[in-house]
Amino acid sequence: MRAKGKGAERTSWPLRRAGITLLLGLLPLPLILGSLLLGRKGLSPSEVWASLFGGEVSETARALVLRVRLPRILAASLVGVNLAVSGAAFQGIFRNPLVESRILGVSSGAALGAALAMVLRSGPAGVQTCAFLGGLLAAGLAILLGSAFGGGILVLVLSGVLVSSFFSSLVSLVKYFADPYVQLPGITFWLMGGISSVLWRDVMPLAVASSLGVVGLFLLRWRLNLLTLSEAEAQALGLPVRRLRFFVIALGTLLTAAAVSVSGVVGWIGLIVPHAARALVGPDHLFLIPASAGLGAAILLLFDNIARTALPTEIPLDILTGLIGVPVFFLLFMRQIRKGGGWR
Amino acid sequence: MAMKLVARGVSYAYVPGQLVLHGVDLTVERGDLVFLLGANGSGKTTLLECLCGIRSPIEGEVLLGEQRLSALPPRERAKWVAYVPQFAETAFAYTVEEMVLFGRAPHVGPFGQPSRADLEKALHALDLVGLDGLRGRPMNALSGGEKRLVLIARALAQEAPFLLLDEPDAHLDPANQHRVLSVIRALVKEGLGVVATTHNPNSALLYGDEAVLLRAGKVLARGQPSCALTAEALAEAYGIPFRVLWDGQGPPAVLPRTDSP
Amino acid sequence: MRKALIAVLAFVALGSAQVLVVDQAGREVLIPSQPQRIASAFGVATPYLYALVPPEAIVAARYLGLPDHPLSRAVMARIDPNYAGKALGAEITAEELVARNVDLVFAGLKHLDLARVLSEVGIPSVLIGPETFEAVKGATLLIGRALGQEERAQVLVKFYEDILSRIAQATSSLPPEKRPKVLVLGTSALRVASGAMYQSRMVELAGGVPVTAGLPGYWQNVNIEQILIWNPDVIVIVPYSQVQPADLLADPLWAAVEAVKTGRVYKMPQLLFAWDTPIPESVLGILWMAELFHPGEIELDFAELARAFYREFYRCELKEKELNALLGR
After folding, report:
1. Candidates 3.40.190.10, 3.40.50.1980, 3.40.1190.10, 3.30.450.20; CATH matching C163-326
2. What one-character-per-residue DSSP string does A76-115 give?
3. Which of B9, B50, B191, C197 has the CA that lies 20 to 30 A from B128?
4. What CATH homologous superfamily does C5-148 map to?
5. Residue A141: inside a domain, yes or no?
6. C109 CB within 8 Å of a chain A CB
7. A312 and C131: CB-CB below 8 Å?
8. Which residues in chain C come in under a pLDDT of 50?
9. Is residue C147 within 8 angstroms of chain A, CB to CB?
10. pTM, rounded to two decimals
C-alpha cells in the first residue's frame, strides 16, 4: 500500500538549494544599507552616503548614521541571526519544529539576570553581562535537572518548563520589591524587548557570541542532521549522543542569551524563521543554518525598522513579533495537525 | 577480522531486581542468518540492543571476536555492528539518499560531511536493496516496505559485517515480507552476519540458518529452525498449542492449533 | 570633581556661555546657553518647564494624563496655545527628537538609555527623579540653572516652601488621635499606593497616617480582606483612576470599611497635572487632603493659594469655573 506522496524529489546535486541559501545569506547586506536610509529624522541618500564614506554632511547627520543607526541596525541583524540559528538547532535537538530556545528557560534566566542588575543599579554593560549569565544559568539548570532524571528529550523539555516558570516567578518577585520610579519601569521595558539604546560598545560582544555560536553549530551541521533521528538510531550509528546534545545546547544557549541580553525577550523569531528556512532549503543543516541566519537577520531587521520609525515612540519588538508571529504559528500548527505531521 | 559476534551470559534489567534477560548466550557468525523468537516481552529487543552496544549488560558480556564490544568507542563499534530498529521516524523530511548517507556516520569526522566516496557507497547500498530509483524521494512518501528497505540500506552503508534487525518483517504484506527477507538472505550469502527478531516462526523456517527461542529472558531452544522450532517448544514459548505442517517439499510450516476440527 | 572643573574652565576659556549641571541621576551635563528648542520626554518634568520658560521654547512635551475636559483644554491653551501639536507619546525615540531639532531634553531617571543615545548625536539630556519634597525643590533649582532661570527658580522654590511650611504648621501639632488613617487607591479599587511612594509622603504632611506604611515597592494589588484589616478612615482615589467614590460607597464588600460607613471617600480633582505626582503643584494636593482630613481646622484659604500658585508658576489667571474644577467643587 503506497502512502500518498508529498514533497518534490530532491537529489544530492544541491544547486538550487545552494542558490537559495546563498541568496538568503546575502539578503541582509542590501537590507542593512537600505535600513540606514530609514529613521524618524529624514536623511537623504546622499547624506547617508557622505556619512559612511566621507563627504560634506552635518555633524548631526553623520553622528546619527554612524553612531545611532548603524550600531542599532547591526545589532538587530545579529539578534535575528542568533535567535534564528539557535531556534534551528533546538528544533533539531528536540526533533520538533515547533520549538525555540525559550524551551530551556534561557529567556527567563536572562530576564532575571537583567532585573537583578537593574535593581543593583548597574550600568548598561552590567545589565547585559548579567542577562547573559542568567540565561546560561537557566539552561544549565534545566540540563542538569534533565540529566538527573535520565536526560531524554521529554525530561529535558519538562525541566526547561520548570526552570522557565521558576525564573519568571523570581522576576516577578524582583519587580514586587523594585523601586517604583526607576527600576520597575526599566525592568518592564527591558522585558518587552527593544534595542533602542544600542551603541557600538554593545555590538562587539554580541558579534563575538554570534560568530562563536554560528560557526560552532555550522561545524556540527551534519551531526545535527543525525541528531534528528531517534536516540537509539543515533547511538547505533556511533554518535556520542549525550555529549553532542550538550554542545549543541550550549552553543544555542550562548546565541540566545547574547541576543536576549541586548534586545530583551523577543519571541517567535527562533520558531518561525527556521521553519520558513526549512521550507525553502530543506532540513539539511548545511543549508538550513546559513539560510536561517540570513533570513533571521533580514526579518528582525525589518521588524526593528518598523519599531523605530513607524511612530514617534518606540514600539516594543516583542509586540511586533508577537502580532505577526502568533497568527503565523497558528497557521503552521493547524497545517501540521491537518496533515498528521506534515512537516515530515 | 572478527568472524563472530557473541553474547555470553548476558543479563539485563530495566528496573533493578527485575531481570529481562537471564544469562543469555547467542553466537552469530559471518554468513549466518539467526532468527530470534519469543513472546512479547521475552527480551528480544533488549538482547539486540545489548548486541549492538547501546545497552550495557549488567552481567555477562558481548564479544566481537575475542574483544569486548564495550571496550570499543561508539564510533568503532558502529563500524562493526549495525542496527535497524523496528520503528524509525524522523521529524524532518529527509530524502532516501540523505537517510542512507547517515549510515556513513562512523566513517565521517565530527566536523565533516560525507564525501563523494561516501555518497557512492551509500548509493551502492541502496542498489543492494533494489531501491536506487528512489534516491530523491522524501522518506515520508514511501510505503512501509520501502522504508524498511531504506533503513536496511542505511545499515549496509555503515559497511559493518554484522547486522541486527528488529522485526524486519513486521507490518508488511506477504509480498513485501518476502522482498525484505530475501534481500537479507542474499546479503548473508555475501558474508554478512545477521540477527533478526521476528514474531513469525515461519520466517525463521523459510530463511534462517539458526533459530533461538526465548522465553522470559532465557533461551528455551536453539538450533536449526526446523529442529529447534518444534510444536512443543513453540507451545511453551507462546503459551498456545501449535502444529507443524509439512507437505514433503521445502521447509515445514507452523500454525497455531485452533480447537475447531 | 576635577573633571567638572576642567570642563567648566575649558568652556569659559572658549568664551561660550555654557552651563554645567549635575542632574538627579548624578550625571554631569553641559548645556548650551539659551536653549531654543526644549523637549520634555517625561510627564513629570513638563510642569517644571512651563513654570520656568516661555511656552515658545518648548517644542515637544509629554502631557501625562491631561484630562479630556473643555475647562482643562481651555486653561492649557491659555498657558500654551500650541500645546496640542507638541504632545509626545511614551518611550519617544531619540531620532524623533533629532528630527524635531531639539537642543535640550528633560527626561526621567528611567530614560538613562535615551540620554546615552542622544549624547551620541550631541543633544544633552537632564534627568530628574524627584521622589520627596526636597527633591522637588532640587529639581526646580536644577532645571532653573540649566535654563539660565536661576532667579526665577529660587522665587518658585520659596513660594513652594512657604506653602509647605504653612501646611506643616497647621498639621504638625495635631495629636495622633486626630490623624485619620488614610488609604490611597490607584487605577483600580484594589490597587494601593505603597508606603514607599510619594503619595504616602503627601498623606503624612497633610496630617494623616498612611495605612500602607509597611508595604514595599510600587503600586500593589491587595484583596478586600487586607483593606478591612487596615480599615481606613478616609479613602483618597487618584485623579486618573477608573474608580469613582460612588462605586465604593455602593459596593456591599466595602460597606464595613470605616471610610465607606462615614462617606469619606474622595477622588482627587485634576485640572492640568495630577497632584499625586512629584511636581510643585502637588502642594495643592496636600492642601486639598489636609482640608479633607481636618475639616474646618486648617486656617489656610485654599482657593486663594490655588489662584496664587497658578499665577506664580504658570502665569495664568484662573476663572471662577476653572478654579472650582481645580478645587473639586
Report:
1. 3.40.50.1980
2. HHHHHHHHHHHHHHHHHHTT-TT--GGGGTHHHHHHHHHH
3. B50
4. Nitrogenase molybdenum iron protein domain (3.40.50.1980)
5. yes
6. yes
7. no
8. 15
9. no
10. 0.84
